[in-house]
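Hi! If you just cloned this repository, the fastest way to understand the data is to look at a raw example. We've pasted two of them here, unedited. The first protein comes first, obviously.
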Amino acid sequence: MTAAFFPANRPGRRLLLILALYLALAIPHSLIAPLTSGNDEWAHFLYARFIAEHGRLPINLAERQNRAEAGTKADDPPLYHLLVAAAAAGEPPARLLRPVDGDPQRQLADNQVVSYAFLVHTGYESWPFPGELWVWAMGRALSILFGAGLIVLTYLTGLTLFAKPNWALAAAGLLAFIPAFIFHTSVMTYDSLGALFTALFLLVAIQAIKQPDRWRWWPLLGLLAGLAVTTKYSSVLLPLEIVFVSGLAARRRTVLAGGGWFGWLAKRVGVAGLALLLATSWWFGFVIWHFNTIDTQGPVRGVLEPLLVRGGNDSTAISVTAFLLGEETVSVDLPAPARQRDYGYLAWQMVESFWSARIAERYLLSPWLAGLMLGAVLLSGLGLVRLWRGPRELSGLTRTWLALLLVHTLLIVPLILIRGFVSFDPLEAVQGRHILFPAASAIPLFLVWG
């Protein structure tokens, strides 16, 4: 596997070429695209800037709910934002940006094309990125770096599954040149770091199934799941995938060596769960310590409410908490009634935003790119069905790998459905990147394999 990266090796050279082409597209885009172009980019910037300025996370509700300072992501897991603040530590984040903030003169001066422009764009948004602009530059640079890492992990996972370098290269190249992937990894977002951890999680899961008695894979699975959760809450279902992986590994071990499986499985799940708790304890401990409402709501609701509601910026989390614990326990205002849904429109938005990104309120190459890729997905799906239904004696681990890739890809779907039905604005949830990034290495492998 290591030899594949050696320059004298042909697949290694091709992988380097894919990475070079990806960087040749992502870096110029990150330099050209105005700040706030990315989804929630303004909020990510404010959160990282707050950490860079104060040397700490927000520690009370007043700081969390000050959207002009800490932003609307200030109650989200902070691992990405901590890394950005650390990378930007050499430059004091002096305030140079000019937020619109409802000022009609600034709105006129900026000639906003979209309602999320947020800023009057000035010459500070270019090299050498002085003051607080350096935080933004480091945020985008890290996103690109994590995107490159995702491409490499896709290649390594393909090699592990197929043992065919050309197939692995095809999967890596497919991911690298999805327009939505290039766009989102060249702006400031925690999606790329979360995807890096989940892609590494998938690679380790494959090794755990191949070598079920190697103890090292199980705490590593828990650690990676914990790192993903402390990057983005959408990874919160990864513990369920650990149980599924353990079941696949136990089944393979029983076939190879015989013997009981329940005790074996319980030990592996327990070790992975302990590593997961250790990896997430710093963040959840911080939240409970600073934001608990035990004095007013008791020990159970007082601990759960700040973990679920957080700072009150997620309408879905508030609605779900009110349903589970009662409206009287929620410490923030309840969201307005959900907007009317057009599910056909939402489904097509999911498809378009999976493959492309909005430019001036229109998806790139719409609707042709999304339609073409949807056809490719359907064709690949037919190939995978034929593969699954093939002779059992010829399949080997094929069904196991297909099942793992399928679960890994669809793990996020229940959360998207809940948000789609419950959230005030379903378009906040129905975005293709919410599937693309958690399954960034699995989806290209599926398509190439099919």
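Ok, and the second one:
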Amino acid sequence: MTHSVDYKSLFLKAEKKSKKADEERRKAEEGRRQEKILREQAEARNRQTTFEEFIQYCHNLLSKPLKAGDPAQSTTGKIPSPTGKYCPLRLESWTDCVSKQQRVYNSVRQYLHPLGSEAPRLFSPCIVLEEYGQRFAARPITSEKDLEVYERFAVENHVFDIISALCKIPSAREEFGLGDGVWFDNHANALDENTRTLLTTVEYKPLYRLSNENLRAGLRPMNFYYEIVDPETVPTDGPEKLRYNAAHLAGSAIVQEYHVMIQEGLEYLYLTTGLGVVLLRVPDDCSTLYYYLGEPNLDVESVIEGPRTAKERVLCLCLMSFQSAYRDQSWRNAARSQLSIWKTSFGHARSQILPGELRQKPPGSDYTSLEYTSSEMTSSEYQPSSPFKSPASLSRRPSTRSTRSTRCAPANVNRREDSSEPDDDLTPAAQRKRESPQRHVGRFRPHSYEFCTQKCLLSLQRSDVLDPQCPNVKLHRAVLKTDRHPIRAAELVSLVKQRLDKNLDEYYTLFGQCGSYGAPFKVTCAAYGYTVVGKGTTSQLWHEVLQEAEIYHILQSIQGSAVPVFLGLLNLAKIYFLHGAGEIRHMLLMSWGGEESILSLGIVHDDLRPENLLWNEELQQVLIIDFHQCHLNHQLLLPKPTSVENDT
């Protein structure tokens, strides 16, 4: 008996089997595709990034998640007392800041993504930035230390990486004047001006202490001295009081930085709250301070062209600082002579505002996007920074390229006086001639005179004959044409003082490391060629250092053998501001850099560290320096008993 074939059933089974096979193939292909995507994403996350990728990853992963802590849970600390700070006469908006930074940024992009070639991968991979981003997102900023840590790892280290990459490109190194690069440091040690130069500084002000709303409302063009420092009237309530509070608070914060800019001779500096960056500029006419407020997380969503993220702005400001002309001690002293003093501190200014007022938004505090257009920035080769993408989409998309007169402050304003009083003392200013600070291009190179020998300066001290081995003996002989010194030691000290009172920038060079009580300078009396060491110090430390001069008198007999030759001391009429040390106003003059020799004279050094023991090539022995901590042991001056033998 035959059975009919159920072709329909067979067809359906075959169709089902085919669909199942197709589905399995589709799933396998999808699995392979997903595996490829994951592999590519993993590779993208682990590979080095291009400059543009690096900037965008940093912003998306590190800046966007940043949160300010609850003020009630934030650290408070002791409120510092107000201190005198130099302040500008006017505040003005830095209107060409964006265009200046855009030009710098365009140059950076040309070097790090040359036109017509693939962008090199030079910077940290995404996976490294993700780890930092997770940590910062989990911890709101609740203290200045938190903000400092965030800025170090989220901004400064990355700016360092970018500048380091530029340093490896000779043309970039030359264009920006990069030297050996840049280093961010939070130590206040004095710099060796022969090898390192202070470019700029940064002030950290957490958002819970200085809100972006107060910065928006408080930073505005104004006659700062008459509106904030010494106003005729102060609003007591309503919107005007909130507006004044914002200006007073923002003003106190930036004046703190302006004071540093004057002392250090800086053109550029910035203040950050984490979510806001205030770029500051002091022109040659230092009576006006220029400001620009950037808010990276909002600016990247706007149509602002040019650098918008914190890293881009800080990078450009650092590169602009490299190209800024050096402002010498003459400029700084002239600036001090014309500026007003405002006795303030940010913490004190904030403490004077009622808590309820601090929580209110002042008028004019809404965010406003500042559009910028310029014919200079219409290049078809380099377009403005592209919109910021998420890290996932970024990894799959191709890279895109893209005169004022100096004004005197009011006569009743307190000023710093050029005196030997403590640095923080402020006295009413006397009427005196004002000097207008002038720009000095380039840094004075360390002068090339060699130090006079110990024997030369010892013979000068004793009015004896010249040392023929002194490298400067021809200059010593130039006037009298004899073998005797043309002047006495006291005259040398007087001539050095006269010269330094006129100019602190020539024949007066910092060298070596700054000690705990003084900084070493090479000082030359150009008229006779005498070159000696000047130990400069501040008024606060002068009392301790002055003791060293007394000790040198006790050690007169061993000067030039176990200790340097001491020539005298002087008080400077002008201030030499030294980073990390302060205002140098006093100096000991001595020859260029034992134990048993000084003990025999009753002196116990008390600080015989390696730094205070100097090898002298001329004498072929060690010289001891820095006697400000020593003491006199009278027991060491007593005659030693002699042994007596009994006759038997």
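That's it. A detail worth noticing about the second one: The chain has a mean pLDDT of 80.
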